[in-house]
């Protein structure tokens, strides 16, 4: 079980991880997109950090809602409404809640993926962040089924997201700016899937380090 | 008059469209949401919301956009709009031609439905 201050800690590590990988994400996006994913995400998560610094959250739902709005308002690219929608879906799962359990995490991954599908009119296999997020949800749900520990569930999502992101290299982009390149997008990792994997890795790493 | 909102990743694009339209029609409520608030290429939900509000009336608002995140941010702006969002419509249209036709039409006091009928043939299928 995670309490509010721990969730804030995990979101803080998420923001730091994005900042640290800004150049990497921009390089990935430069290869097949408009080359601004790192900058956009870094700017969005800088405002998430500012939101966390400001504090005053009523509960976990309120925390995710405020962070989601920061992303919607400040990212600039498609990842703004997409990550924003994911966070707002998480806020709905955690409405009025003070603490979060492993089962909530699985539900968040599921609802976030559904929200992104709806907002982006996309699905798995189209070389997007969903190719990291959906496998992460499935792996986390499996881990819950197998009665694994909370940390193992977070790790399962992290590993599956990372593998999913690498797996986008062989896919043809069908959404976003990269879709203009068609076959030429093969051989490059999707920057959105890469950032989604980083975000989920930060959650697992934060709780692993707390032990 | 029907309000017209132009959303683009680029500030120059929306300014250019407004400039072109102004040759034919000057007094139409047109609002621009080009680029991000810190001057990058991209779209900005706050700019879009402000633009919609600034031209909002009971006659309605038609929202034109260029590509990608512009559409998603326009949808999110409508989700969060305080005003009656049923009077605001995002339009699937060739950006330049559709927007200019709509601006000229609005200046001729055409209704939202009349304008939509005029630009119906300019659909690009960019709202999946």
From TrEMBL, chain A:
Listed EC numbers: 2.7.1.-
An example Gene Ontology molecular-function term: transferase activity
This protein's record includes keyword Nuclease: no
Coiled coil stretches, renumbered: none
Keyword field contains Kinase: yes
Keywords for the protein's UniProt record, in alphabetical order: Kinase, Transferase
Name of this protein: Dihydroxyacetone kinase-like protein
Organism of this sequence: Sporolactobacillus spathodeae
Automatic annotation (TrEMBL), chain B:
Keyword list, A-Z: Kinase, Transferase
Catalytic activity entry: dihydroxyacetone + phosphoenolpyruvate = dihydroxyacetone phosphate + pyruvate
UniProt GO molecular function: kinase activity
EC main group: transferase
Domain PTS EIIA type-4, first and last residues per copy: 1-128
EC number(s) per entry: 2.7.1.121
InterPro entries reported in the protein's UniProt record: DhaM, DhaM_N, PTS_EIIA_man-typ, PTS_EIIA_man-typ_sf
Function text: Component of the dihydroxyacetone kinase complex, which is responsible for the phosphoenolpyruvate (PEP)-dependent phosphorylation of dihydroxyacetone. DhaM serves as the phosphoryl donor. Is phosphorylated by phosphoenolpyruvate in an EI- and HPr-dependent reaction, and a phosphorelay system on histidine residues finally leads to phosphoryl transfer to DhaL and dihydroxyacetone.
Quaternary structure, from the entry: Homodimer. The dihydroxyacetone kinase complex is composed of a homodimer of DhaM, a homodimer of DhaK and the subunit DhaL.
PANTHER family, A to Z: PEP-DEPENDENT DIHYDROXYACETONE KINASE, PHOSPHORYL DONOR SUBUNIT DHAM
Name this polypeptide is given: phosphoenolpyruvate--glycerone phosphotransferase
Native source species: Sporolactobacillus spathodeae
């Amino acid at each position: 079980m995670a309490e509010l201050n721990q969730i804030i800690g995990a979101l803080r590590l998420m923001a730091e991880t994005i900042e640290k990988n800004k150049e990497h994400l921009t390089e990935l996006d430069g290869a097949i997109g408009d080359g601004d994913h790192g900058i956009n995400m870094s700017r969005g998560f800088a405002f998430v950090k500012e939101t966390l610094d400001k504090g005053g959250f009523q509960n976990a739902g309120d925390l995710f809602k405020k962070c989601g709005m920061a992303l919607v308002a400040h990212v600039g690219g498609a990842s703004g409404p997409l990550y924003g929608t994911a966070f707002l879906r998480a806020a709905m799962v955690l409405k009025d809640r003070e603490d979060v359990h492993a089962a909530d995490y699985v539900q968040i991954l599921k609802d976030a993926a559904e929200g992104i599908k709806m907002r982006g009119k996309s699905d798995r296999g189209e070389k997007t962040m969903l190719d990291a997020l959906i496998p992460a949800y499935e792996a986390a749900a499996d881990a819950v089924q197998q009665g694994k520990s909370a940390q193992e569930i977070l790790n399962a999502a992290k590993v599956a997201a990372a593998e999913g992101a690498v797996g986008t290299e062989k896919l043809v982009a069908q959404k976003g700016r990269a879709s203009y390149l068609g076959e030429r997008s093969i051989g490059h990792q999707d920057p959105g899937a890469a950032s989604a994997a980083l975000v989920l890795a930060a959650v697992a790493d934060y709780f692993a380090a707390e032990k | 008059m029907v309000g017209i909102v132009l959303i683009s990743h680029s500030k120059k694009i929306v300014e250019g469209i407004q400039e072109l339209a102004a040759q034919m029609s000057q007094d139409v409520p047109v609002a621009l949401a080009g680029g991000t608030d810190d001057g990058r290429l991209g779209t900005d939900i706050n700019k879009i919301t402000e633009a919609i509000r600034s031209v909002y009336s009971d006659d309605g608002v038609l929202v034109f956009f260029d590509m990608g995140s512009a559409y998603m941010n326009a949808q999110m702006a409508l989700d969060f709009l305080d005003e009656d969002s049923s009077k605001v419509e995002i339009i699937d249209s060739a950006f330049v031609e559709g927007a200019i036709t709509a601006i000229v039409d609005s200046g001729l006091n055409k209704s939202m439905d009349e304008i939509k009928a005029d630009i119906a043939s300019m659909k690009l299928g960019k709202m999946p």
